[in-house]
Design brief:
It is a multi-pass membrane protein. Its main location: membrane. Pfam families: BPD_transp_1 (PF00528), BPD_transp_1_N (PF19300). By secondary structure, the chain is an all-alpha fold. The chain folds into 2 domains: 73 residues, no CATH class; 218 residues, MetI-like (MetI-like fold), CATH 1.10.3720. The chain is 79% helix and 0% strand. The chain is built from 14 helices and no strands.
Length: 313
């Protein structure tokens, strides 16, 4: 509990620092959201109207004053309102978040279905044809950019074969291509990681001792080698899960998938500052929560961490 409380304090300080830095950089970005809101390219707008809206949004105040106003609203769980849709930023994020989570979970399922069997077989049959094929897959998969793989899938399954939709969200078919794109790109990393971790575990002294006591290979692998091999996998998984949620931006734009990634890209194009700032903090909070959860799982899987914590007490 002490460790978790310490992590939460560090998280709050980091969140304040990140919010200030992101707020300053967003405000210093080129472009004028006021002109975007008034549609100056489409209708005639006077300077008085522009200045009136600037005063209303407090754009004429110094940056630290603007940040103070934003920070007070933030502590009231108010991320402001979108300049374009006039809707609360938090409600817009929450309305788009289930779509991103669905895409993330589907991608993780694809990754697990590919990486666990391939990584396990590659370790059990080292230097056999299965090992060579899995290592080749890992090499090719990690070399191909995910957006290029997505374009190949669109060309093959949507354009030429016409069996899967290439954009939007509606049926289960819409999630297949984007989840395959993300899942295959991730599985290439985990195949190599799981293979190396299992090979290291199979050569440990406690495994040799278990074999000498006559314990079956199946029991040794499932209850000793595989569990210990999950420790580095869980660590990397926690890091990649957060980056996966935030990194779906490219895939969501490519497949016109209505998640928070596509929403923030649209906000950047429209210079919708509250949505951009809200997205940064929303993703940061999510990633930190995932890392804390992974840290707890890591302590459960690795007895050495728990024993060190007991000794310090």
């Amino acid at each position: 509990m002490i460790h978790i409380a310490k992590r939460l304090i560090e998280f709050m300080l980091f969140l304040l620092l990140l919010s200030f830095i992101s707020f300053i950089f967003i405000k210093l970005a080129p472009g004028d959201p006021v002109k975007q809101m008034l549609h100056v390219d489409e209708v005639s707008v006077t300077k008085e109207q522009i200045e009136a809206l600037r005063d209303e949004l407090k754009f004429n105040e110094p940056l630290y004053i603007q940040y103070w106003y934003w920070l007070k609203r933030f502590f009231e769980f108010d991320l402001g309102h979108s300049y374009i849709t006039k809707q609360p930023v938090l409600s817009e994020l929450l309305s788009r978040f289930p779509a991103t989570i669905t895409l993330t979970c589907a991608s993780l399922i694809v990754m697990i279905l590919i990486s666990v069997p391939l990584g396990t077989l590659s370790a059990l049959y080292k230097n056999k044809w299965v090992d060579h094929m899995s290592r080749l897959f890992a090499l090719v998969g990690s070399s191909i950019p995910s957006f290029w793989l997505g374009l190949l899938f669109i060309e093959l399954f949507a354009v030429k074969l016409g069996i899967l939709p290439s954009m939007g969200k509606g049926t289960a078919k819409h999630i297949i291509l984007p989840s395959l794109t993300l899942g295959i790109a991730m599985s290439a990393v985990y195949v190599r990681l799981l293979r190396s971790s299992l090979l290291e575990g199979l050569n440990e002294d406690y495994v040799k001792a278990a074999r000498a006591r006559g314990i079956s290979e199946k029991r040794i692998f499932l209850f000793h080698v595989f569990r210990r091999s999950l420790i580095p996998v869980i660590t990397i998984f926690g890091m990649s899960l957060g980056s996966l949620i935030s990194g779906t931006v490219v895939i969501e734009v490519l497949f016109a998938y209505p998640g928070i990634g596509k929403m923030v890209v649209d906000a950047i194009i429209r210079r919708d500052y509250p949505v951009i700032q809200g997205y940064v903090l929303f993703i940061t909070i999510l990633i930190v929560m995932i890392n804390i959860f992974v840290d707890i799982c890591y302590r459960y899987l690795n007895p050495e961490i728990r024993l060190k914590g007991v000794e310090r007490r």
